[in-house]
Amino acid sequence: MIEVKNVFHSFKIGKKGRENEIPVLKNISLSVKKGEIACVVGRSGSGKSTLLNLISGYISPTKGQIVIEGTDVTSFNEKEWARFRLEHFGFIFQSFQLIPGLTTYENIELPLSLKGVGKAERKTRVEDMLKRVGLENHSGHYPNELSGGQQQRVSIARALILNPSIILADEPTGSLDSETEEEVLSFIKQLNRERGITFIIITHDDEVASIADTKYHLHDGAFTKGGESVEV
């Protein structure tokens, strides 16, 4: 479902014509099957977020190929990527990324509005989603009126509302206490089992990685095995 093939990525720093290239990812390859939970595990600065940004099209690889659901997205322009993300991806963030001035209902509804879904259908889908995530009694609450676990459930509901085939999660429990983390991880496993959604999760936390079907350990921009750099 997701193929990352021999991908390199470098950032350029310095004045134009005199830039220095700083390598971030070095010959990265991974393969994620449909309905799988894959975790990319590594310390801060290992390149995890860069890899997630490459898979989601917010940056382009310096070298290599990315194929998602049979489509080579490596050379997509921003317009193509925007359309592709809307059709295929949902996103979960460490800091929830909820809009403070919108209620639970409105935060979940937002992607449907952006896609042009009619008001009646939006209402049906949002109310159904609120029940699925156990927040039907909090639809009128603002983010600052919710607990951390509830806010992350709103974030997950918003990610699910367009029925994506893939969810990309960036440290999804990083802002939660251990009890709430366990609750959110259990919910992710339930969604994966019941709806067959493919998850790619980046994390530094072994507890989060324990739910994965496949783990990739990233160190200094390369995957490792037994502490040694390997080509996957």
TrEMBL record:
Annotated ABC transporter domain residues: 2-232
GO molecular function: ATP binding; ATP hydrolysis activity; transmembrane transporter activity
CDD domains per UniProt: ABC_MJ0796_LolCDE_FtsE
Gene3D superfamilies associated with the record: P-loop containing nucleotide triphosphate hydrolases
Pfam family, one: ABC_tran
UniProt keyword annotations, A-Z: ATP-binding, Nucleotide-binding, Transport
Protein's UniProt keywords contain DNA repair: no
InterPro entries: AAA+_ATPase, ABC_transporter-like_ATP-bd, ABC_transporter-like_CS, ABC_transpr_LolD-like, MacB-like_ATP-bd, P-loop_NTPase
Coiled coil, from the record: none
GO cellular component: membrane protein complex; plasma membrane
Domain of life of the organism encoding this protein: Bacteria
Similarity comment: Belongs to the ABC transporter superfamily.
Record protein name field: ABC transporter ATP-binding protein
Source lineage: Bacteria, Bacillati, Bacillota, Bacilli, Bacillales
